[in-house]
Design brief:
This protein has 282 residues and is of the alpha/beta class.
Length: 282
C-alpha cells in the first residue's frame, strides 16, 4: 500500500541484490511492505517489524482476521466528515477493538491525500475493490512473524549468522514527515544508534538511505559497501518531468554475489513464486 518512503519503484532492484544464502529474513522498518510482498516466500523464516503500532495492528488483522476486517470496511463512507471523525478517534487512541482500529486506519490511508493520513483526498474510491488484494496479502502473511519493536531490540533478538536484515529507516533529515503518521520522528542519534547496532551483528544487512554526506560518513568503514542509485521523485515529478531522487544502498556483503553465481548452481531461494505477479498493494 502507499506509504511514506515506500519502495515500490526500487523493490525489484533491492530483491535482486539479496545475498545468495540466508535462513532468516527480517524487515526491520516494514512500512508498506513492498519488499516483503515482492520477494518469494521461499523456505526462510520471515519477520515484518514496524514501530508504528497502528500499522502493525493492521497487518496482524490482515493476517489473522481478514474477514472481520472486510466486514468493518464494507460500508465505510468516502466523505470528509467520516474521514475527520475517524482521524479524531485514532488520534485520541480511543478505539479498543483491534479490527475496528485496523479498519479505521486503513480507511485513513485509502481516503487521505497522497496516503499522508492528515487531509481528505477527495478522490473516488470503492473500498470493496481492495478486498481481493487484502485476501492475497492474508495468504502471503500466513507464516510471517509480525513485530512491533524498537529496531535495536529487534536486531538483537533475531540476529544469527544465517540472518539477513533489510532496513529502510526514515531518511536522514525527514523527521517532520514521519511525525504525521503516528511516530515520534527518527532523530540524528537514532541514525547513529542504528549504525552501531548493524556494525555489531553476526548476520548480513542491506540498508536503503537517501544519498547525503552524513549517512555516507556514518558508514564509511572497512567491510561496508555503499552504492548509488536513483528513482523517480514522485513529488517533483508533478512539475519537473523525469526528476530523480538520489539514494544509496549500504551492505556488509558483496551486493553482486548473485551475478557471480553459476547459473547451474542451486540455492534455497531459486523457486517459483506462489503468488500472482500483480502488485501487492494492500
Amino acid at each position: 500500500m502507499s506509504w511514506i518512503g515506500g519502495k515500490k519503484s526500487l523493490r525489484e532492484l533491492i530483491v535482486s541484490l539479496f545475498p545468495l544464502y540466508y535462513e532468516r529474513y527480517i524487515e526491520v522498518f516494514g512500512g508498506g511492505g513492498w519488499v516483503l510482498f515482492h520477494k518469494s516466500p521461499g523456505n526462510d523464516f520471515e519477520v515484518y517489524n514496524d514501530f508504528n503500532s497502528l500499522l502493525v495492528n493492521l497487518y496482524r488483522c490482515v493476517r489473522d482476521r481478514y474477514e472481520d476486517l472486510e466486514r468493518e470496511l464494507m460500508y465505510v463512507l468516502n466523505s470528509r466528515e467520516d474521514f475527520e471523525k475517524t482521524k479524531e478517534l485514532l488520534d485520541k487512541d480511543s478505539v479498543a477493538d483491534d479490527v475496528k482500529r485496523a479498519a479505521y486506519f486503513y480507511q485513513l490511508i485509502r481516503y487521505s491525500y497522497a496516503s499522508g493520513l492528515t487531509s481528505f483526498g477527495s478522490q473516488p474510491h470503492d473500498m470493496r475493490s481492495n478486498f481481493p488484494v487484502i485476501e492475497q496479502a492474508h495468504r502471503r502473511l500466513a507464516k510471517v512473524v509480525i513485530e512491533n519493536k524498537d529496531f535495536e531490540k529487534l536486531i538483537r533478538q533475531y540476529d544469527r549468522p544465517v540472518s539477513f536484515f533489510y532496513l529502510d529507516p526514515p531518511y536522514f533529515d525527514t523527521e517532520k514527515y514521519y511525525k504525521n503518521v503516528g511516530e515520534d520522528g527518527f532523530k540524528k542519534e537514532d541514525h547513529t544508534r542504528l549504525r552501531d547496532a548493524l556494525l555489531s551483528i553476526e548476520g548480513k544487512f542491506l540498508l536503503s538511505y537517501n544519498d547525503c554526506e552524513f549517512i555516507r560518513n556514518l558508514y564509511n568503514t572497512p567491510g561496508i559497501t555503499i552504492e548509488s542509485y536513483s528513482r523517480i521523485n514522485n513529488i517533483k515529478q508533478r512539475y519537473d518531468n523525469g526528476a530523480q531522487f538520489p539514494e544509496i544502498l549500504i551492505a556488509n556483503y558483496d551486493l553482486h554475489e548473485r551475478d557471480q553465481n553459476s547459473p547451474s548452481q542451486i540455492n534455497l531461494f531459486d523457486i517459483k513464486k506462489d503468488y500472482p505477479k500483480e502488485e501487492m498493494e494492500l
